[in-house]
Design brief:
The complex is a heterotetramer of chains A (295), B (272), C (272) and D (519).
Chain A lengths: L2 H6 L3 H17 L10 H11 L6 E7 L5 H17 L3 E5 L5 H15 L4 E3 L2 E3 L10 E5 L4 H10 L31 E6 L3 H13 L3 E5 L8 H5 L5 E4 H12 L4 H42 L1
Parallel strand pairs in A: 1-2, 1-6, 2-5, 6-7, 7-8
Antiparallel strand pairs in A: 3-4
Helix pairs in contact in A: 2-10, 4-5, 4-9, 6-7, 9-10
Chain B lengths: L4 H17 L5 H38 L7 H17 E3 L7 H20 L5 H20 L3 E3 L10 H20 L1 H12 L5 H14 L7 H4 L3 H10 L1 H26 L10
Antiparallel strand pairs in B: 1-2
Helix pairs in contact in B: 2-3, 2-4, 3-4, 4-5, 8-10, 10-11
Chain C lengths: L2 H18 L7 H32 L9 E2 L2 E2 L6 H10 L12 H32 L21 H17 L8 H49 L5 H26 L12
Antiparallel strand pairs in C: 1-2
Helix pairs in contact in C: 1-2, 1-6, 1-7, 3-4, 5-6
The chains are: A alpha/beta (295), B mainly alpha (272), C mainly alpha (272), D alpha/beta (519).
Chain lengths: 295, 272, 272, 519
């Protein structure tokens, strides 16, 4: 029996073996995977990338440890990019269990800024990120919708003090920031339904440029807003995070997982194609066999 | 009569009531509804005894007939009894005292009973041993004060052994069994995705497009429209298919349920 | 990582490997893990049902207030006696002779299920989908909401494809009419749409399934291997690691030997 | 020690109040930098009525937006809604709280008393154990205290004495407390009636800017906070609030209004209509079938496969594996599967081959045993029936899968039949089945799982076909009649969908709205 027939009736355990080997190797190794970036992610990156130095980016982190795995990579990539490009970052956490996690994330990113890096060919020096100068973390307040509306009037109304208890007026960067009209854009990274409030009450009422990063499951339901121009970009789950890391040239957890994902997919697709090649190659033979049987 | 008519009558009564309860928002109807749901839970708990009985029967039978792999039946029994023991006891302090000897005694008791059930010869020695171990267990439980039984409060659900068994053993087994899917989905795709006829080809093509939606290595082959195409596939033909299937299922369900309530379909309940 | 945690994790890791060994073939390790899993899970479920199902429903307030209690009879909720009795009827299954008594609670169960399903499923699966189907199709943007774009899921074209697809899908589910002529054509189109939809949702799941396996790899790597070979860890952690590895390697070698001396089943090319 | 306990209670109370306070204020305290605004104009045309189609205990308010909302000063941020609470409510809440606290205390004592005694015992034996002894005063996994031995012993003795002394007292207190609570609840309607005497306005919450309606839903449980009785006179008022809490419009008041439950849900009429239609169809066609009208049903390959599969099993002398899925006996798909099992088991009994039915749920197992047994009776082979062939495995999804996979590879059944509710395990089972070289027939109503069955099984009943299978296998005219009813229901649905779609397209949405289910 020829190679194709062997291919046709290949024992499935070869499939298992190959898949397992590929997964383990790719997991262990650390090669770069090219990630196909979708326009809705690229638009976010480009928007931030083209902002002038010193502009304010608002990053509400409305998620809790539950959806950390998917959403943390987005936050890390975006905030680091902002600080590398010497923007000021304004952060809130409108999810009950969010603040502690957000605070920890901020500290980690601050540490990563202490070493010089080269992203997309541009080399950035090490920077000392100062609370109140480069960023302000406002913390948590209940009733997201009302908080969002209040901030539209003035950040000081929902947050007279920041997360660490300092009055906003005594933070240097907050001096000339009153409300949404003073921010360049808001990137809402959310695992809760706060995203709806950001779209309808925040962007809808005050009309600042808004982009969102959401968990994989809830990605589809926000695409309509992209069509209606209410948001200028959307990052969906692990994949979206990986795409952004790709754009920011700043590989993180998301890309690690994607590496294994991609190779596993390739293996599966390859096997499907092999199966079909074998199928068509042996088709004529099978037909003849049938004919002889008929005779 | 007793064996058939009355069960059917019960089905009719309860079915009809719950059918109309749906349209009555009033408090009283809600009260009855919730009460009935409690019934199902309670009966379920009592039924569990039946299930466990069957479980033990099966394994005793296996051991008795020395059926292929009968030795492993002991593992199941031990696992079950162990988990139950952990589920009824909890430490008082940090000390373990005689807890594990107690568990061992309980396990041995049950194993002896199982053996007595499974043996072809004289069961008495096993029963005697069972009684002995049971006695040991009781004595330990009586004397040892480092741990105690909790039958009426759910304290043991948070106890050391129970939680560790769940977090480390059950979760591992669960997650791993689940993750076998990663391989099975591959082998299934390899075996079944062959363009035998037009339907298989459609299945194959749709699956391939959606799978390769974010795969950069395939970009030169499919072009960058593939992600939009897969998005379209998910939101248009998939949506249409789901609608058709959901509606069909809905009608099928209602038909079946109606037949059962009206007693047209009687096959679900025994006759003789 | 203290040694109890490490040992528990090791047990979890070992069982993980046992389950994965099933991918090669059924083997003693898998049999062990499987039977353990069955026993533990049955015990776990029994405990959960006892502590969260039976006690709260029947004996929750027991001894904690002035009410008097007798077994499950609670002077504040005497009506809970009924389900308790019904539950006890389930135990008639222990006797072969009076098994049929248990049909009363069973009939109640099925009655509740069927009766509840009729309006609920009709509403959730038929009415809601019907309303969704009747949403207006965007005729003004028939070829895409912004410019000509066939892959626009919101365009009138896509929406009408959804509509027609759903209708044809329903046609496919007709039982009492032969699929011939125009009707047959619609049915054929319907099943095509179904197949495309199924293919798409198959492809969509692959990613999630693969990530399950990735999670298990991360578990083995980050929770088990890394802590064991960490310089801070006690020396014998690593030995445990090597021991488990040795077991795996030994088994693999053994199976390889068997594989090399294998006989093939002539018709299926599989190892017997 | 007593003081210690009191202290704990006080602390708990403090924590509770502070927590409550925290969740109360949405916007922090008013801020120096806040711009001074003129008070906005009040809402107009405020109306209150019982919420329709509910179990009562709910009132809906409607009003017309303040002139400063979206227009004018545009200073309105939210509408704060108040209800008039008689002080009797506080009495009720206090009683409720003390009842639950007493219960908790009694329960805590019952758990802690043995622990305390045990701890004392250990300590008196070996003072060195002090470091390791964990005993908590309030409830499990709470604060631990490490003190010098003699103090610890004294404290323990004190605690034990305190518990021994107080447990019975508390236990006897709960009953009278409950009775007081019931009395107090009974007085509530009267207390509501003598508005505005001995009561005050309290805030219920805020409705966001732009909204013109608010529903005050109380609990129907007398044991829950936020309970308010039906048929009691309630009074409401609404104020427009600016970002600065202190600046608000004057109030619009409405009342008295009573809540009550309804006996028919008007929003669900379309469902009722469809159910009745279906009912009529079914009865009609069943009658026709009984009269002997010839009812054609198109062949289903999956169904025909069943017979061949059983025959194959007989030839190979291997058993048939029938899985009812992981549904409970209240799932319709499982019920449908029962009747299919009945048909299959009958054939199996006739061919004198054997059937294995591992079950996921004890009740499902019990029913399955009844079904199989009676099928054997029908086939007049009652003595071939072995109850052990229908057995319970476990009630834990993947443990069930693992066990069944094992059975497939060891028993090597000639045919696997999957009918009912299947979740993620569908592919795990089906793939192992193919590995074991069995013929596989599947049918499920879990849409997400159908693709996997189609891919891995030889024959798949898609969705509705699962529910038709029993009728097909049974071939009883009555059941075929009900299939006819299903088809006609489909015709009606298609017609309605078409008309509705065209209607909405041609500007006649009324028809589509007729079928809208609300609530």
């Amino acid at each position: 029996m020829n190679i194709f027939e062997r291919l046709m009736q290949l024992d499935r355990r070869w499939v298992f073996l190959l898949l397992a080997i590929v997964c383990v190797i790719t997991y262990a190794s650390s090669f770069e995977v090219p990630i196909l970036v979708e326009p809705e992610v690229r638009s976010i990156f480009q928007f931030i990338d083209t902002l002038p130095k010193g502009s304010v980016v608002f990053v509400p982190m409305d998620y809790d440890p539950g959806s950390m795995a998917e959403l943390h990579p987005m936050t890390y990539a975006i905030v680091e990019q902002c600080w590398r490009k010497e923007f000021k970052v304004l952060i809130t956490a409108l999810s009950q269990n969010g603040p502690g996690m957000a605070d920890q994330a901020i500290r980690e990113i601050v540490d990563s800024l202490k070493v010089p890096k080269t992203y997309n060919g541009v080399s950035y020096p090490a920077r000392e990120i100062v609370n109140g100068v480069d960023y302000a973390f406002l913390g948590y307040k209940p009733y997201p919708a009302i908080v969002i509306l209040g901030m539209g009037q003035n950040f000081r109304l929902p947050f007279p003090l920041d997360y660490y208890g300092t009055p906003l007026d005594s933070l240097p960067m907050m001096r000339d920031i009153q409300n949404y009209s003073d921010i360049a854009c808001a990137i809402n990274i959310s695992g809760t339904n706060a995203t709806d409030y950001w779209i309808s009450y925040g962007q809808g009422r005050f009309g600042f440029p808004l982009a969102i990063g959401v968990t994989g499951v809830s990605t589809a339901q926000y695409y309509p807003y992209l069509g209606s121009r209410q948001i200028f970009g959307i990052m969906g789950g692990m994949l979206g995070a990986a795409e952004y890391e790709e754009l920011a040239d700043n590989a993180g957890n998301a890309k690690d997982a994607m590496r294994v994902q991609l190779s596993a997919h390739l293996v599966i697709i390859a096997f499907v194609i092999m199966g079909n090649v074998g199928f068509f190659a042996t088709m004529r033979k099978r037909k003849r066999g049938l004919a002889e049987g008929g005779r | 009569m007793m064996k058939q008519q009355i069960p059917r009558l019960i089905v009719l009564v309860f079915g009809a009531f719950l059918l109309f309860q749906f349209f009555v928002p009033h408090e009283s109807s809600e009260w009855i509804y919730e009460f009935l749901l409690d019934w199902t839970i309670i009966i379920g708990v009592f039924a569990l005894a039946v299930g466990i009985w069957s479980l033990f029967n099966v394994h005793v039978e296996k051991i008795k007939t020395k059926k292929f792999g009968w030795k492993y039946s002991y593992v199941t029994v031990i696992g079950f009894v162990g988990m139950v023991t952990f589920g009824f006891t909890s430490q008082n302090g940090q000390e373990w005292g005689w807890f594990f000897p107690f568990v061992a005694a309980v396990l041995l008791t049950v194993l002896m009973i199982v053996q007595a059930g499974a043996t072809k010869g004289n069961a008495l020695p096993f029963l005697g041993a069972a009684a002995f171990f049971a006695l040991c267990a009781t004595v330990i439980a009586w004397l040892d004060t480092t741990w105690s039984f909790y039958f009426q409060t759910s304290v043991p659900l948070q106890s050391f052994m129970f939680r560790r068994m769940f977090d480390n053993i059950l979760i591992s087994l669960h997650a791993t069994t689940f993750s076998l899917l990663a391989f099975f989905i591959a082998s299934a795709a390899y075996r079944a995705f062959r363009a035998r006829n037009i339907m298989a080809s459609l299945l194959l093509l749709a699956a391939l497009v959606v799978m390769s939606r974010f795969n950069p290595y395939l970009e030169p082959i499919f072009g960058e429209h593939v992600s939009r195409l897969s998005n379209w596939l998910m939101n248009v033909p998939n949506l249409a298919a789901q609608r058709a299937v959901i509606m069909g299922i809905g009608l099928g369900m209602v038909a079946t349920a109606l037949k059962v309530v009206l007693g047209i379909e009687r096959n679900y309940m025994g006759k003789g | 990582m203290d040694y109890t945690t490490f040992l528990w994790t090791t047990a979890g890791a070992f069982l993980t490997l046992c389950i994965f060994s099933f991918l090669y073939k059924d083997n003693p390790f898998y049999k062990f893990a499987e039977h353990l899993f069955a026993g533990l899970s049955a015990g776990y479920f029994a405990m959960i049902l006892w502590h969260n199902g039976l006690i709260p429903k029947l004996m929750y307030a027991r001894l904690d207030d002035g009410n008097w209690y007798l077994l499950w009879l609670d002077s504040s909720k005497p009506w809970y006696l009924i389900p308790a009795l019904l539950g006890i009827l389930m135990w008639a299954r222990f006797s072969k002779k009076y098994q049929w008594v248990s049909r009363f609670p069973l009939a109640m169960y099925i009655g509740i299920g069927a009766g509840m399903a009729i309006p609920l499923e009709m509403r959730a699966r038929v009415n809601e989908q019907l309303s969704a189907m009747m949403r207006s199709i965007d005729w003004s943007h028939f070829f895409g909401t912004n410019g000509f774009n066939l892959l626009d899921t919101m365009s009138g074209l896509s929406q009408s494809i959804v509509f027609i697809g759903a209708i044809c899908g329903l046609v496919y589910f007709f039982f009492s009419k032969a699929h011939t002529g125009v009707f047959g054509g619609m049915a054929k189109f319907g099943i095509w749409i179904l197949m495309i939809g199924f293919g798409a949702s198959f492809g969509f799941t692959v990613m999630a399934r693969v990530s399950l396996f990735i999670n298990r790899m991360q578990f083995l790597d980050q929770r088990w291997i890394k802590p064991a070979i960490a310089p801070s860890a006690p020396w014998w952690y690593e030995l445990v690691l090597y021991f488990v590895a040795a077991v795996v390697v030994a088994y693999a070698a053994w199976e390889l030997a068997v594989f090399l001396r294998r006989k093939k089943n002539p018709e299926t090319n599989q190892v017997i | 020690m007593r003081h210690k306990l009191k202290l704990v209670l006080v602390l708990v109370l403090c924590a509770w109040t502070t927590a409550a306070a925290q969740t109360d204020t949405a916007l922090g305290d008013s801020v120096s930098a806040a711009p001074a605004l003129p008070p906005p104009l009040p809402v107009t045309n405020l109306q209150a009525f019982d919420t329709d189609n509910d179990h009562g205990h709910a009132i809906t308010l409607t009003w017309e937006k303040s002139a400063d909302d979206g227009a004018g000063e545009n200073s309105v941020l939210a509408y704060e809604v108040f209800r008039w609470f008689p002080f009797q409510v506080d009495v009720v809440d206090a009683l409720r709280k003390s009842v639950s606290e007493t219960r908790d205390a009694v329960r805590a004592f019952r758990i802690d008393l043995p622990r305390a005694e045990n701890a004392l015992h250990e300590l008196s034996e070996d003072p060195g154990k002090l470091r390791t002894i964990r005993f908590n005063v309030a409830r499990p996994s709470d604060s631990t205290f490490e003190l010098t031995v003699d103090y610890a012993i004294r404290a323990l003795e004190d605690t034990i004495a305190f518990m021994r002394e107080n447990a019975p007292i508390l236990k006897n207190r709960t009953k009278p407390l409950q009775q007081d609570l019931e009395k107090a609840l009974a007085r509530l309607p009267q207390a509501h009636a003598n508005y505005p005497k001995d009561g005050e306005w309290r805030s219920l919450g805020k409705a966001l800017v732009g909204s013109t309606t608010y529903t005050n839903t109380g609990s129907k449980e007398t044991t829950a906070d936020g309970f308010f009785p039906d048929y009691a006179d309630l009074y409401y008022r609404v104020e427009a609030v600016t970002v600065d809490e202190s600046i608000r419009s004057e109030a619009a008041t409405v009342g008295p209004v009573q809540s009550r439950g309804q006996w028919f849900h008007t929003g669900k009429v379309p469902v009722l209509g469809f159910v009745l239609m279906f009912f009529v169809f079914t009865l009609t066609f069943v009658q026709m079938a009984k009269k002997g009208a010839n009812l054609y049903v198109r062949p289903l390959s999956g169904i025909e496969a069943v017979d061949d599969a059983i025959g194959r099993a007989t030839e190979m002398g291997r058993p048939i594996l029938y899985l009812l899925g992981i549904g409970t006996a209240t799932d319709v798909s499982t019920i449908a599967s029962f009747s299919i099992l009945g048909r299959v088991a009958k054939r199996v009994a006739e061919y004198q081959t054997s059937i294995i039915v591992p079950c996921y749920d004890p009740i499902v197992m019990a029913v399955a045993q009844e079904v199989v047994k009676s099928s054997y009776l029908d086939a007049a082979r009652a003595d071939d029936y072995k109850q052990e062939s229908v057995f319970f495995v476990t009630n834990y999804q993947f443990a069930y899968v693992a066990a069944v996979n094992g059975i497939m590879l060891r028993e090597r059944p000639a045919t696997n039949i999957y009918m009912g509710k299947f979740m993620a395990e569908s592919l795990l089972l089906a793939e192992t089945g193919t590995l074991a070289g069995s013929i596989q027939i599947a049918g499920t109503d879990e849409i997400a799982q159908i693709p996997f069955f189609i891919v891995a099984c030889d024959y798949t009943l898609i969705g509705e076909e699962l529910y038709a299978a029993s009728a097909y296998l049974g071939r009883e005219p009555v059941l075929l009649g009900s299939l006819k009813a299903q088809d006609w229901a489909k015709v009606v649905i298609m017609a309605v969908a078409l008309i509705g779609m065209l209607g909405t397209a041609l500007g006649w949405p009324a028809f589509a709205q007729m079928f809208q289910v609300t609530g």
